[in-house]
Amino acid sequence: MFRIRKIIKKIYRIITGRKGIRTKNFGKGNKWKKGVLITENCNIGSYNYFNFNTIVNNSNIGNYCSFAPNVQIGPGKHSKNYITTCQRISSQTISHKLNSSKVNIGNDVWCGANVVIMQGVSVGDGAIIGANAVVTKDIPSYAIAVGLPAEVIKYRFSKEKIDFLKKKKWYKKDLKEAKSYIKTIEKDFFKLK
Q: Class of 2-156 per CATH?
């Protein structure tokens, strides 16, 4: 019976074009290109864009995020302190699990091509992660982080503008409403230093 259900799910994913979208926990208006894999243990908000070959595992993602090609979020962590890193052995001998802690990505986050975000990391709202970066620690809201390991090089806006955006929470609105709301707040935003 389990095998039949699995086959039916695969056929459904092929027919609907959702071949690698295994989670049922996602909002509306998301778009994904060919080769995207989102595992069952993910929660995905609305209006996100996943480019070619992006892999999302063990993650919570907010709204309005953009992921360039080949981004990997929450790759499995193999046992490094045991005799072997082979999951086929360590999962049975020491009950090691590949998924230890979730990745939490805020809203309106942009990740460049080939970014890797390790498990247990949080990326704040409005952050930008530069291409080829490996994120091993938390990235604050509206920060720009690059490198291997990723380091914050600057912030997108002044503290005053960041505080303003945090209060407005435009990313909690539907697409049409968000566009309209941004137009109403942008004049006040650009007046700030």
A: mainly beta
